[in-house]
Structure formats: C-alpha cells, structure tokens
Amino acid sequence: MAVREFSGQLDGVKEFDGLLDSELPPDQAVFGAYRGPKQKPAQPAAAQPSIGVMGLARPEPAGPLDPAAQAVVDRWQERLTRPVETGSIGPIQGPAASIGSIISGLANSVVSGAQKTRAGMRTIVADAIGSPDATATARREVADAQLRDATTTPAFESPTAAGIYGGVASTLQQVPAVAAGLATRSPAVATAAMVAPLVPQQYGVYRGAGADPMTAGLGAAGYAGAEYLTERLPMGVLVKQLGRVGAMRFLSNLLAREVPGEQVATLAQDAIDKAVAEPDKTWGDYARERPDAAYQTLLATITQGGIMGGVNSGMNAVQRAEDRAVAEDARQVALTKAADLFKPPAGVARELPADAVLDGEAPPAAPAVAPVTVPPAPVPAPIAAAPT
C-alpha cells in the first residue's frame, strides 16, 4: 500500500465508496480508498415561491381576482416598484428663541468648532489616502456637526437679535486664541490660533456640498486667508491694549479696525461660499443678501467689541487695585526705613526733652496745678485835706 504524506489540504469533498484498498487496482491504492464525489441525478427544478413584502412567501391566488382586489394589488405593486426619489428637505430651523435655547446654542457653539475641525481633518486625510469609505465616514461626521448647529441655534424673529447672538457666539469661540495671544503677548500667535481651525472646517463643509478635493482645498484656504488678513490689526489692539488703557480709548481703537475688517471678510467669505458650496445661487442672489449680511456683521462686531470693552474695564479695575496695594506696601517700607535711619545706634543714649514724645508713644499727661488764691487789693484810706 502506498503511503502519501498529508499536505494539509484535501483534494475536495469525497465520499467513501465502500471499497477497501484490497479491492482497488494497485496504482489506485490509497489510505482510506476515497474517490471523487458521486454525481447525484439531477432533480427537476421546483417552482420558486413568490416573495412579497419583508421577504415572506406570498401565496399565489387560486384564480383571477375581482376588479377591486386587483386594483389594490396593482397599486401596491406600483408603489414597490416606484423609483426612489431624493431631494432636499429644505432649511432646518432651530428652536424658538428663549433663555434656555440661547444658553444651549451658545454652549454648543463652543464645542461644535472642535467637532467640525476634527471631522474636517479626517476628511482631508481620507481624501489624501484615497479611501472612499473613510471619506464617506468623515463627511457624515461633518454633516452631523452641521445638523447639530442648525438644530441648536435659536430661530430669532429679527436680524438684530440674530446679529447680537452671532457676536456672543463668535466671542466665545475666540477665547482660546485670545488667551494664547495674551499669554505670549504676540498678535501673530493669536491670529494664527484663530485662523488655523478654519481650513479643515471649511474643507469639510465644501466637500459635503459636493466640491472636489482641489476646489474644496482652494476654497478653504481662501476663506481662512480672508480671515487672517482682516484680523491682524484688531488682534494687535486686543493683545497689546487689553487691560492697559482706558475703556473709551480701547473701544475706539478696537472698533476702528474691527468694523471695516469684518465687513471685508464677510464680503470675501460669502463670495467663496457662493462659488464653492452654492454654485446654483446666482450673483444677483448674492448681491441681494449683502444689506442683511452687512447689518448682522455690524451688530456682531459691535457686540463683540462691547464684550471685550467690558473685559478691559474689569482688568483695569483689578490692575488699579493691585497698583494701590503695591503703593501701600512701598509706603510702609519707606516709613520703616526712615524710622531705622533716625534711630540712635545701640549703646548710645540720647538726651531728649522731658516733653518729647517718641514715635508710637502717647504724650505724657500734664502735671496737676494747685489753684492759686489771689487776695483782694487793699483799699487806700482817704486823704485828709490840709489846713489852710
């Protein structure tokens, strides 16, 4: 009997045919005497049951249906075979404006920036490595962040309230960048920290809107560049003068640079959004949106300036209190040194007048004086007239 070494793989599924090695020809004698699979006779194909809704077998009717039943069947058949239509559900509005919705929206605006930045970075990486699955996942994250913003931002009835809300939300989002600038006393650091997250954020937005990677990258770079160029001067005032000058001087210097810069940035960034993310919008639509956009930008800028002006006044008050404390400490030190300067050396006695009062001592009490009785003056006797 020939013995073959097992290679770890079987030749296929085989059936034992009931023959032992002794019953096989010598050239076919193998251990176990397996042969190829037996061919089973072909069975006639059974009729496949009709599959209905939810994968359940649908019984075939025994005969023709009446017209009413047939109409129902035809109507459901038409619905099941109708092509799926997709489209937009329109703009999503947030909750009605209230104290609770405003607080919730502002809180979400603080954390949504980090979420959109992370999702945008993942989109950039996915596009760079060419992974469709990773790109789809990252774009879903961007869409989720945008949906969260839309559903948490209060629906204000007036553009004035919307502009003020935007100014408060923008100020809260810029806190980390301003803090970095104040810590380093560098406007460049503050501006870079504020502008850097805009690139991945806008890239994710533009890719979600259907732009190709190249167009999305150029649009994001242009959006962030407009922000950088228009924020350099206001950030310089903020970093160098916050808490160092008076309220009116600080506010006037800040708004004189912030108001025109924000208007220019809004014009440029809205134009980039229109070209990249909203190609169906006409430039006429863009022009008609300018007055309302300029008004809301102005309100947001003034609101942000007012908040920073309040911060400046608070920092000035704290600084003045610290200056007064330092001045008082310096005065006490000077008085102590002056007392030490006029103190006689040890072992040397210095005669002082009896009524001298040392620093810190109470003046001596005046000695008691006994009352003095003054006798009345004698009355002179009358003088007699001389005899004539």
Mean pLDDT: 78
Percent helix: 55-70%
Total beta strand runs: 2
Which of globular, elongated, flat, extended, rod-shaped describes the shape?
A: elongated
> Rounded to an integer, what's the Rg over CA atoms?
48 Å
**What proportion of the residues form beta strands (DSSP E)?**
under 5%
Low-confidence stretches: 1-6, 8-38, 51-57
The succession of helices and strands, N to C, reads: EEHHHHHHHHHHH
Record the strand order, biggest sheet: 1-2
State the secondary-structure class: mainly alpha
Specify the biggest β-sheet: 2 strands, antiparallel
Terminal-residue CA separation: 205 Å
The number of distinct helices, counting runs of at least 4 residues, comes to: 11
